[in-house]
Amino acid sequence: MLRPTKHSHPDRTVINVSLLLLDYLKKYRIEEYGKLRRKIKEKTVGGDVLFLPALSFLYLLGLVEYRPKTDAVEYTGPDEAV
Amino acid sequence: MKLSKLYSNKPECFQDIIFESGLNVVLAEIRLPENKKKDTHNLGKTTLGHLLNFLLLAKKNPKFFLFKHLDLFREFIFFLELELLDGSYITIRRGVQNATKISFKKHEFAQQNFVDLAEDTWDHHDVPFERSLSILDALLDLRSLKPWTFRKGIGYQLRSQDDYRDVFQLRKFMGKHADWKPFLSHITGFNADQITSYYEKEKQIDDKKKQEQIIQNEFGGSLEDISKIEGIILLKQKELEKKQAFLDAFDFRSQDKEHTEQLVNMIDERIATLNAERYSLQKNQKKIKDSLKEEQILFHPDDAERLFKESGILFAGQIKKDFQQLIAFNRAITDERCAYLQEELGEIDDRLKEVNAELDTLGKQRSETLSFLNETNVFNKYKKFSNELITLKADLSSLERQRDSLRRLQELRTSLRRIKEKLEHLQSDIELDVEQQNADPTCLFSSIRLFFNEIIEEVIDRKALLNVALNREGHLEFKDEILDESGNATSADSGTTYKKLLCTAFDLAVLRAYLDKKFPHFVFHDGVFESLDDRKKENLLNVIRRYSDLGIQVIITLIDSDLPPKSDRNKEVFGEQEIILTLHDENEQGRLFKMASW
What we know:
The structure holds two protein chains of two kinds. Chain A has three helices and three strands, in the order αβααββ. Chain A is an alpha+beta fold. In chain A, strands 1-3-2 form a three-stranded antiparallel β-sheet. In chain A, a hairpin with a 4-residue loop joins strand 2 and strand 3. In chain A, helix 1 packs across helix 3 (47-60). Chain A is globular and about 40 Å long. The mean pLDDT of chain A is 87. By secondary structure, chain B is α/β, with parallel strands linked by helices. Chain B is built from 15 helices and 13 strands. Chain B has helices at 45-55, 65-68, 70-73, 129-140, 154-157, 177-187, 192-219, 225-248, 258-294, 301-310, 318-374, 377-439, 444-460, 496-513, 534-550; strands at 2-8, 17-18, 23-29, 77-83, 89-95, 101-107, 124-128, 158-159, 464-470, 476-482, 522-525, 553-559, 579-584. In chain B, helix 7 (192-219) packs antiparallel against helix 12 (377-439), helix 13 packs across helix 14 (496-513) and helix 13 packs antiparallel against helix 15. Chain B is extended and about 125 Å long. Residues 252-256 of chain B have low confidence and may be disordered. Classes of the chains: A alpha+beta, B alpha/beta. At the A-B interface, helix 1 and strand 3 of A face strand 7, helix 4, helix 10 and helix 11 of B.
């Protein structure tokens, strides 16, 4: 699922959507789940479908955390880009 | 959530304050005899509360002492360590100069000093204010406050002298009731959604009434006029139809202009055909341009590799390689298609140019022909009729506008009635909820009520009542009353002496009711013993100690003359452990900020 095949469009892959997520979260640190999903949907075709797998992927890599009180996703990776 | 440590980057001016998990005393000693009679001592008891509020992300206020005396405090950076509900800690860093940029660090152990922590070691460094609020709210995880943030109730946790005037309405809640009553009803266990929507509905009614007034002022007239206007519209429409029919029946051929009319018709027809063709061509052109655009690939393998690397993830060249191959493949199949599309686009562009040129010529021809036609007498007549028709149409549209406004007025009134109906239903629901909560001895509100009474009874030996009822407008009214021996309300609660006690009791009762829930577990009471007599101070201290033992962190400030009497002559009132900060008036070293008063 992560490695692209010749049939996949490079923009419509988990890696690309994770990248968009990572780029956004590194800049804004925390964002509400719904808003984040909307942002990704705007940015790439099929972003809404790939959103959750991409988020899970980043979670597996230890780069994001979910915060239930505010229903938000927080960036928890290294901080050097700020 | 409890306070753990407060410190700054200038320990010589502001000493570290380490909070205990139970009772914490900030004691101010008035050692100079000339200061004994003064009301204010300027040592920093109240300032400590303000400082805590600042570190718990209060909005930047130019009147706040740190910003008012920026020349003194510019260089200060403060750190507040908080204990979270899961036993871990978070440190908040907020400087004076850059007060809207806040940093956070989560850690496992208490009593850290992060003054010299490198920028990249903070979990979040220099985050803008609004984002910081979201981050802290998420990390504190005080779910019992949901949907409000932790900031909404902070006034009940950090009672300053100004907040002792009313038990329920804090100074910052001086505005509309809709801002704070839903929150207060939520923490006291009532259905806050109902109360929020009650205030919303009231606002809707207000708005609609304003709209109604605007329409009435603009157009005048009443709803009775609607029938009159409809009548006039009908008459004018009939007249319009008549005139239109006359114009339509105008026989151009009888005026020996046959060839002219034919010419016009032919030109018009050709123009219509060309317009249709231009439309279809432009549509195709857009489609092709869109599909050419769609085939762009925004993904950059190099950026992906860099960003993942920055986040500490390495794919050992895999991502880059796979995606580069994929992009090459995509480019190969789209290149060929692109060529076809480009070719087609070229053809369309050429044809469009031709069509536009022909349309220009035809347009010129038509206007020339028409100007020839206009010169005849017949067309003078035609013009006259047309003018009359225009006046008639203008009259009609003005009447129709008036009719529409009146209809809107009618709709507004209908929806107003509907909202009022809903409001009444809502009021009954709220009444029912209040009744149920009042009657249920096991609910949250009853617990708060019982704890509240227990505290007051223990301190002044009188019963006290927390009361929540609906007033005439359907709004919740919160009341606190001290009862006399026979159980009737007295006016003792209206005096300032007991007001402070009631505020303290309410805050403690709420905290106790939420002891095992995701709720703040600390309270800061400024000058809590002031103007109470000795016996009562002792009783209140016993209550505070008992609550501290239950797991509530109580921080109190007092001056030595307000100290409760010693129960044992050889023993101090407070243990060394309990006094977290001693201030005195002998010299600058005795102040919270070791500098001249500002």
